[in-house]
Amino acid sequence: MTEQRAGTEFNIRAGEYTAVITARAGALRELRHRGRDLIVPFPAGGPIPDYRGIVAAPWPNRIADGRYTFDGAEFEVPVNEPDRGCALHGLVFPLDWDLESQNESSVTLSCTAGPTPGYPHTVRIVVEYRLSGEGLSSQVTAVNVGGTAAPYGVCPHPYLVAGPSPLDEWTLEIPAGEFLEVTPDRLLPKEARSVEGHEFDFRAPRAIGATEIDHAFTDIAFDGGGQARVLVRDPGGTGVGMSWDRTCQWLQIHTADKQPPAPNRLGLAVEPMTCPPDAFNSGVDLIRLEPGATHEASWSIFAR
């Protein structure tokens, strides 16, 4: 798995929240409430393991074999997940993002995806991280500054931490009625299935237990304000939540299962996605970003 080096950092704070964002990958390295970690952090200046906290664009999740067809032309992007033969998490996570603005409670960074032989488009991507007394809000804005229509998708990649107890003991609530069945070897999509009667049914909060998840969910229930929420609670009383808007109709959940000696189940990856895995091939919910067009997606993380 690819690891990026984290360099320049930006510290922001508001109320009882603090956060650290890195220029490398535009990544959220640390988020704390009253000194308690709400995400799995990574060390300053070191590698970014498991893509923690990155912005995944211009595609989230996987492209099978790194190959896809768009507007009748075939393209190939680098495979960076060799075990599964996939192109994972886009093009911008290895980049050092530029600082656009910063104050005590917010920071805005930018970078450009493409043009490359496999993605011959030019998409400017801007991420704003803003803290308030309510938590951390993030917004990613993509603008096609090139001359050709571009396929596009995006997601964040935090690993949430409910508290000090093991992940198996955390209570999880996912407002989704379907999950995407995937191939066991490559985690590529097969078909959407109802969570009814399945171990992935977390519509009512319950303990994660030994359940292993690395799947996309959909048929998401949004409230009257157009928000959906995943909530994770520790039996000791602490917790963390993540909310997002209707621009993300898909949600990847991963229980961070690892084989020894790697640290196992350190946190819960919660990734609101604008499209499902391998959308560059299926076309499902894939955004077609015309020249001059803009796309925005936003999400928030907060303490419980």
Automatic annotation (TrEMBL):
Pfam families the record matches: Aldose_epim
Record InterPro entries: Aldose_1/G6P_1-epimerase, Gal_mutarotase_sf_dom, GH-type_carb-bd, YihR-like
GO MF term set: aldose 1-epimerase activity; carbohydrate binding
Protein name: Putative aldose 1-epimerase
Organism: Arthrobacter globiformis (strain ATCC 8010 / DSM 20124 / JCM 1332 / NBRC 12137 / NCIMB 8907 / NRRL B-2979 / 168)
Superkingdom in the source lineage: Bacteria
GO biological process: galactose catabolic process via UDP-galactose, Leloir pathway; glucose metabolic process
SUPFAM superfamilies xref list: Galactose mutarotase-like
